[in-house]
Design goal:
This protein has about 325 residues and is of the alpha/beta class. It has two domains: about 1-110 and about 300-334, 3-Layer(aba) Sandwich (Rossmann fold), CATH 3.40.50; about 110-290, Rossmann fold (3-Layer(aba) Sandwich). About 35% of the residues lie in helices and about 15% in strands. The protein has 14 helices and 13 strands. The chain has helices at about 25-30, 45-55, 70-75, 95-100, 110-125, 130-135, 165-175, 190-195, 205-210, 230-235, 255-260, 285, 300-320, 330-334, and strands spanning about 1-5, 15, 35-40, 60, 80-85, 100-105, 160, 180-185, 200, 215, 240-245, 265-270, 290. The strands form two sheets. The protein has a seven-stranded parallel sheet with strand order 9-8-7-10-11-12-13, with helices on both faces. Helix 1 (about 25-30) runs parallel beside helix 13 (about 300-320) and helix 5 packs across helix 7. The longest helix is centred in the C-terminal third of the chain and has 19 residues, at about 300-320. It starts with a strand and ends with a helix. The structure holds glyoxylic acid. Glyoxylic acid binds near residues 87, 110 and 298.
């Protein structure tokens, strides 16, 4: 179940990788450490994770692994936790910092893939692509129809980007390519970017009221949990579409089900859900006005290779006592 790494040159360290990741990340790890890999498709249980982390100096973890103070206390030899994701809400960072454990993530390398995917979801929902595919597959296509499967115009519409960080900014650039009016809500304003790309910062309430497409790109924190609930959905236009490529709990799922059912908004396209995975019999899965994909925004061959490479570089740098290319608590720990 746990495969020991092959071709181990130096076994100065032992590291765990909590799932099969691209060779681009495993290769450098194997060159410097003994590597234990969790090879199952499903994440390790708490007990299985404990067994995997036994004797490890570092770990490449996934967003499905909960790493909190109690896990770290059970593995005091663990010095670096290198998350194979830009988001790190699965890790209790203050608990790690208190214990001198370095936490790393994989920003930048997945920005374009995630923005592209957001765009794919937005276009698919606006132009009803999944419904159209099903229509043809079901043998319903009998003629060209003036009223057939009418969607919403994307070009020239207004997009509201909630969270204008790295990914939100790339979404803004794509939106400008579609001649959209771009609104953004973010407590940290980048005036230069806004000027250069014709983005207007507005309060969240205004964004929700004016946008034809609302897209979420915030990290999951106590402040952003259920940022979009019943009140916010009520403020949105009845013709609007909500896209989420951030974290599922940013939206109150039951409020979204109600809003899609009662027509408060027109549609939703979700890369992430709460809970995750979403059971196949969940109402959101069968609603024709909701697209759900399995958290695949960064899932391109190229991006996953880059994430693996960066996660390995972060881990090895941390073990060497160097500042990793992307660490979230380097200032606290190093
Ligand atoms: C994926 O959701 C990530 O945070 O990288």
């Amino acid at each position: 179940m746990i495969r020991q790494g092959e071709n181990v040159v130096a076994t100065r360290w032992t590291v765990a990788v909590t799932r099969e990741i691209p060779e681009a990340g495993l290769r450098p790890l194997r060159e410097s450490a003994a590597v234990k890999i969790w090879e199952q498709e499903l994440p390790p249980s708490e007990g299985e994770l404990d067994a995997l982390l036994q004797g490890c100096d570092g770990a490449v973890t996934l967003l499905t692994d909960r790493i909190d103070g109690s896990v770290l206390d059970r593995h005091p030899q663990l010095r670096v936790v290198s998350n194979f994701a830009v988001g790190y809400d699965n890790i209790d960072v203050p608990a790690a910092s208190e214990r001198g454990v370095l936490v790393c993530n994989t920003p930048d390398v997945l920005t374009n893939a995630t923005a592209d995917h957001t765009w794919a979801l937005l276009l698919a929902a606006a132009r009803r692509i999944p419904e159209s595919i099903a229509y043809v597959r079901d043998g319903k296509w009998r003629t060209w129809g003036p009223m057939l499967l009418l969607g919403q115009e994307v070009s020239g519409a207004t997009i509201g980007i909630v969270g204008l960080g790295r990914i939100g900014k790339e979404v803004a650039k794509r939106a400008r390519g579609f001649n959209m009016r771009v609104l953004a809500f973010d407590p940290f304003e980048d005036a230069e970017f806004a000027r250069e790309h014709d983005v207007s910062y507005v309060p969240l309430e205004q964004l929700l009221a004016e946008a034809d497409f609302v897209t979420l790109h915030v990290a999951l924190t106590a402040e952003t949990q259920h940022l979009i609930g019943a009140n916010q959905l009520q403020r949105m236009k009845a013709t609007s579409i909500l896209v989420n490529a951030s974290r599922g709990p940013v939206i109150d799922t039951s409020a979204l089900v109600d809003a899609l059912r009662d027509g408060s908004i027109l549609g939703a396209a979700l890369d992430v859900t709460d809970p995750e995975p979403l059971p196949a019999d969940h109402p959101l899965v069968s609603m024709p006005n909701c697209i759900v994909v399995p958290h695949t925004a960064s899932a391109t061959v190229q991006t996953r290779n880059s994430m693996a490479e960066l996660a390995a570089r972060n881990l090895l740098a941390g073990l060497r006592g160097e500042r990793p290319p992307a660490a979230v608590n380097a200032d606290e720990v190093l």
